[in-house]
Amino acid sequence: MSLAGKTALITGSTSGIGLGIAEGFAEAGINVVINGFGDAAAIEQERAGLEAHGVKAVYYGADMSKPDAIEAMISSIVEEFGQLDIVVNNAGIQHVSPVEEFPPEEWDAILAINLSSAFHTIRTAVPSMKHAGWGRIINLASAHGLVASPYKSAYVSAKHGMLGLTKTIALEIAQDNITCNAICPGYVHTPMVEKQIPDTANARGLTEDEVIRDVLLAAQWTKKFVTVEQLAGTALFLCSEHAENITGTSIAVDGGWTAA
Questions:
Q1: pTM: predicted TM-score of the whole model, two decimal places
Q2: Cα–Cα distance, 88 to 97 (Å, whole number)
Q3: Candidate list 59, 60, 151, 155, residue with the active-site label
Q4: Mean pLDDT, the chain, as a whole number?
């Protein structure tokens, strides 16, 4: 089965993992909808670059913390493309702080973007997938959906919740030819991780080089950052016919982190 001509929404895809997945999908002939915040000129350049692969690429700047904005975006996608075949829930933010200093507003924002947005996207997208008789839902969780690290109470909680959401949705739609799986990356050298380095250095009293060596890559036995291309390849596999009986599971792409 060819994926060419399918339409995919990748949330949080104006940079980092999401943009890498969008590029991998476009190369495979999948129409892509990117979403996120950023400089308008830079986003337009990214969108045009995706269309260079011969697919249609559009941008929606929906605020993923707002259910009404998510619903409006998906309604527009279905109207423009006829249907929405693939959803990749990737939008995410981070804050690193000891729990007694963790700002409540940061907790609320992380839960809204990293977990609740996936729920609202899925609930709004599933009717189109059921109507088409085919669909793929991929939730970008994290190795932190499987194990914890200190100073990331909201992020770890949201990512653990993402795995519970993945399993539940998978059971509900198992007989509709729709799968729902999670990818759990280890550390990927994205702009969000780059921002974490000084924050973690301050929280732990380390240098930035020590954070990379002794914190970020300490548990990744390969001692290599995961690449966005590897994650795009994993997502494409989950969309392929070879994965049609894989649902409700999580795939760790983490350099052996969660094997230890």
A1: 0.94
A2: 28
A3: 155
A4: 96
